[in-house]
Write a structure and sequence with these properties.
By secondary structure, this protein is an alpha/beta fold. It has helices at 33-46, 63-76, 111-114, 118-127, 176-186, 200-213, 249-261, 278-287, 304-315, 335-341, 354-367, and strands at residues 13-19, 54-59, 82-88, 91-93, 99-101, 116-117, 133-138, 156-160, 170-171, 174-175, 197-199, 221-225, 232-235, 239-243, 266-267, 289-296, 320-324, 347-348. Strand 1 (13-19), helix 1 and strand 2 (54-59) form a beta-alpha-beta unit. The protein is elongated and about 75 Å long. The chain starts with 12 loop residues before the first strand and ends in a 9-residue tail after the last helix.
């Protein structure tokens, strides 16, 4: 009889995000950033084109629920899986130097009873079968996480937002460490060796340099225990190529920022066309584009470079998605556009209401699979 083959075990990517910024019992410790971190992290890590994690997010939850979810995901993760646990919030060491991470129901006077201790997380990881573990802690004094530990599980790569005696920065848009982490994962910047993947080592280096360059406090630290091969946390995403005329640079910047907020990676050429390398820059951007979004204005419809970008995208079968800033009739469009692109649905996004229209545009970009454009 033919020998039966064992079923192939598919590796999963599991992430637990714990983001706490509201502490009713310790009002002086409130943080605005973690709730924004949760949204940004979840969108970044769950994107199937970049990180592809199955994400569970806890925002301002109590200690019992947090401990239960840590135990659950550590038990669920198998040997071939990649497990990521991410904490964003407030942390402080006790008199002995042991780190405690605040839950929504923590009391400052009783951290050992009401806050999440680092040793609990490590104990659950030690019992897990998983051997590809990423631990990231965005909190003040985060570097104290491994003080007095009782053993580190093999296959663990940890990054903290700062050292044991340091503070980290919170911003109106989220934690500086978390913002840098997501920037490294959502664009190509963290792919330092250009292999199309972002390893944890590369991510740490990117985040450390980004925080230093922007002048935020804290130096991100890393720890590695028995990791035999690189742990890759993300792939370099295919970008959305924005085609526009230079006169509309301010408007395209607003549109690009709105699309980035929707979790899309943007490619925008900001150099002068006469710089000599325009063709090389544009073809490189379009060759890795998931879609071309062309801003239809009086200036762009008269632009020869915009015509060339659309023609190249059409030849490469990059989906083309026109965006108009006012309602345009067919007679408002030049013949070259009508001849080749009249069948494409034009999305209307008013300059003073970009946020209102960008969600539909982002949905169209994600639905684009091939061919030259999208339907409404």
């Amino acid at each position: 009889m033919p020998r039966k083959h064992a079923p192939k075990i598919l590796a999963r990517r599991l992430a637990l995000l714990i983001c706490n910024g509201t502490f009713p019992n310790i009002p002086q410790y409130q943080l605005p950033g973690p709730v924004k971190d949760a949204k940004l992290l979840s969108a970044t890590l769950s994107d199937p084109e970049t990180c592809g994690f199955e994400v569970k997010t806890l925002v301002d939850r109590g200690l019992l629920e947090i401990r239960r979810e840590i135990a659950r995901i550590c038990k669920e993760a198998g040997e071939q899986d990649t497990l990521l646990i991410y904490y964003s919030g407030n942390g402080f060491p006790d008199d002995d130097g042991d780190l405690y991470l605040l839950a929504s129901d923590s009391y400052g006077d009783y951290p050992d009873a009401t806050a999440l201790d680092a040793e609990y997380i490590l104990s659950q990881l030690r019992h897990s079968k998983c051997r590809k573990i990423v631990l990231m802690v965005d909190a003040c004094h985060a570097g104290a996480f491994f003080n007095h530990n009782r053993g580190i599980p093999p296959g663990l790569f940890a990054i903290t937002s700062c050292g044991a005696d340091e503070y980290c920065s919170d911003t109106p848009d989220g934690g500086a460490f978390t913002l840098a982490t997501c920037a490294g994962l959502r664009g190509a910047a963290a792919d330092l060796d250009g292999d199309g993947q972002v390893s944890i080592d590369e991510l740490h280096e990117f985040v450390k340099n980004d925080i230093k360059t922007k002048g935020f406090s804290g130096i991100p630290q890393k720890w590695v225990w028995n990791v035999p091969e690189p742990i890759y946390i993300g792939n370099v995403p295919r970008c959305v190529f924005l085609s526009y005329a230079r006169e509309d640079a301010e408007l395209v910047d607003e549109l690009g920022k709105a699309l980035t907020t929707e979790g899309l990676s943007i490619w925008v050429d900001r150099e002068d066309i006469q710089s000599g390398s325009w063709k090389e820059r544009v073809t490189a951007g379009l060759n890795r584009a998931r879609a071309l979004v062309v801003l239809l204005t009086e200036h762009s419809l008269a632009s020869s470079p915009v015509q060339k970008e659309l023609a190249f995208a059409a030849r490469k079968k990059v989906p083309i998605i026109p965006v108009q800033t006012r309602a345009l009739e067919d007679h408002d469009l030049p013949d070259w556009f009508t001849l080749d692109y009249a069948d494409l649905h034009r999305h209307l996004i008013l300059p003073n209401k970009i946020a209102d229209g960008v969600k539909g545009l982002a949905r169209a970009i994600r639905q684009a699979r091939g061919g030259r454009g999208t339907g409404g």
